[in-house]
Amino acid sequence: MPAHDDPFAALAPMEALFDALPDVVFFIKDHHGRYVTVNQTLADRCAVGDKTRLLGKRPSEVFPAVLAASYARQDEAVLKTGKPVEHQLELHIYPGGKAGWCLTTKHPLRDRQGRILGVTGVSRDLNAPGDKATGFAELAAALRFMQARFAEGLRIEDIATRAGLSVHQFEQRVKKLFQMSPLQLLHKLRLDEATRLLRQTDLSLGEIALQTGWCDQSAFTRHFSRYTGMSPGKFRVLQTQD
Q1: Please, where are the H alpha helices in 116-155?
Q2: How many domains does the chain have?
Q3: Are residues 81 and 149 in the same domain?
């Protein structure tokens, strides 16, 4: 294939740009799900800073099994359907075993004939904005309400009303500040507390479900697995092993 038709070669110069972003992971994978290009952040977190140790490897050779399986399924879906993954809220385990949240976007890479040759993606760490961030003040009361009452059956409409905004206005402001929807933010608050309880207590999954706002253990497990790529029980075992 001519070099100018190679999407990997075309995107490779972006690697240097993403190297300058310490809170963003950037990668390109081939149609087998193997890393072709990675930025320095991913290398620092998974390969002691050496990019070459990641190239040619699949997620199963880099991440804990439960997380790797989730990432691989996501890659396979993009490769098979050609549909992108947009701003997916996910759990990552960082060096030292610390759990954190990111938003992941993945797109298929195609040649000039439209054939899918690989996947490119970014995962951006989610850091809560500082109190001085533009637009934070008008949301402060509503956000404090969410933080204090996330275990209850909150409705986005009611939270928006507390901010004195329409649902649309509230959604736009939350997305601008947090890079996620209000519902994703609410789920994140619940799951943050759930991961803490899984790490630090011996509460049953049913008890944790009720304490973090899910109607039952089944709903809790379903949402936890969707966002983290593993069941709550597997997460607890993983943290114990670390």
Answers
A1: 136-149
A2: 2
A3: no
Residue 219 belongs to domain with CATH number: 1.10.10.60
CA distance 227 to 92: 10
43: Cα within 13 Å, side-chain hemisphere: 18
What is the span of the domain harbouring residue 42? 3-125
- 28, containing H or E segment: strand 24-30
Rg (alpha carbons) of the chain, rounded to whole number: 19
145 and 90, same domain (yes or no): no
pLDDT tens, position by position, 168-196 = 999 998 988 888 899 988 998 899 899 88
The structure tokens listed for 237 are: 């075992």
Taking only the tens place, the pLDDT of each residue in 79-96 is: 999 999 988 888 777 776
> Contact 194/220 with Cβ under 8 angstroms?
yes
107 strand-pairing partners: 120
The pTM (predicted TM-score) of the whole model is 0.71
Residues 108 and 147 in one domain: no
Asked if residue 131 is part of any domain, the answer here is no
| Alpha-carbon span 139 to 143, nearest angstrom | 6
Close Cβ partners of 233 (under 8 Å, ≥ 6 residues apart): 205
Q: Are strands 99-110 and 24-30 parallel, antiparallel or unpaired?
A: unpaired
Report residue 227 as tokens: 């966002």
**Do 14 and 109 sit in the same domain of this protein?**
yes
d(CA 132, CA 113): 48
